[in-house]
Amino acid sequence: MALPEPVPSLLAVFGHPDDESLSAGGVLARHAAAGARTGVVTATWAADTWRAAELAEALRILGAGEPRMLGYADARFPPSAPGCQRFCDAPLDEAVRRLVVHIREFRPDIVVTHDAYGGLPGHPDHVHTHRVTVLATQAAGLEQMYPDAGAPWQPRALYLATHPHSAVSALRDVIGGREVLYSVPDEQITATVDVGPWLERKVAAVLAHRSEVERGAAPGMIAGLQPELQERLLGTEWYIRHTSFAGTAVVGQTELTS
After folding, report:
1. 45 near 16, Cβ under 8 Å?
2. Is the N or C terminus of the chain more exposed, i.e. has fewer CB atoms within 10 Å?
3. Residue 240 in 3-state DSSP?
4. Which of 42-46, 59-63, 83-87, 243-247 has the least mean pLDDT?
5. What is the dihedral of CA 23, 217, 226, 180, to 10 degrees?
6. For residue 125, pLDDT beyond 80
């Protein structure tokens, strides 16, 4: 009898504390529960801020280790990293190098990040995180790129957390029509993941971002929903497998769900 393949290690890269839980909390929890190494890199907020502390609690719940922070300021909240550049204003080469260090240190099989829209809200930090992650995932495997940033490591796949057009009407039933929501054609989705078995952990991780709950951001909206609506909003995760760099052969959903 053939032994089952190990669940691949996973490094998620997102713009702000709470994005990891909202966008990929189910997959992170699922991989961690199966014994895989999981980690999260967050582009904005400094390590000594209150949101970094909330992030640490969310990652504990998801089994994703300690926070890994690039240390840039949120585009819309400079006190998130006092004295530091806004992420969107930082030199691109510098941001890519910082992320390459984390990729080469963690050596993930899979990297997950925002889609090209920056997910449903289209936040500029999300969009820039997508750009930086695509470049860093490619550069991490090239020995002549950032030779002082660690030994080369090429992840075998990059997945973009997203939402298909067909899901938007159901999402609007829950969150209303208060803002533009960005989604992609259904045929672009390459992995649809039912995260129902890990939904309780995902919701707990979202709610660990207490300051966002208190100010009425997305975690606050989720805190006020009945369990069946939380499941409708968060119980499925969708991903696009990015194919612009050389990796192993496409194996479909097995990378995220086996």
Report:
1. yes
2. N
3. strand
4. 243-247
5. -70
6. yes
Instruction: Write the CA distances from 140 to 188, 207, 222, integer angstroms.
Output: 26, 33, 36
Other beta carbons within 10 angstroms of residue 247's beta carbon come to: 19
SS3 196: helix
- Cβ pair 36, 59 in contact under 8 A: no
- Number of Cβ within 10 Å of residue 34's Cβ equals 14
Q: pLDDT tens digits, residue range 3-39?
A: 456 889 999 999 999 999 999 999 999 999 999 999 9
Question: What count of other Cβ atoms lies within 10 Å of the Cβ of residue 60?
Answer: 13
164 DSSP β-pair partners:
184
In the chain, which residue ranges form alpha helices assigned H by DSSP? Answer: 19-33, 50-62, 92-106, 124-139, 165-175, 199-207, 210-214, 218-223, 227-234, 254-257
Give pLDDT tens digits for 205-225.
Answer: 999 999 999 999 999 999 999
CA dist., res. 84 & res. 57, Å (int): 24
Q: Note whether 238 and 182 are within 8 A (CB).
A: no
* 121: enclosing H helix or E strand: none
**Angle at 188 (CA atoms; ends 92, 33), nearest 5 degrees:** 80
Q: In the predicted model, is pLDDT for residue 248 greater than 90?
A: no
Q: What is the structure's pLDDT at 173?
A: 78
The amino acid at residue 187 is: E
d(CA 57, CA 211): 13
Give the global pTM.
0.93
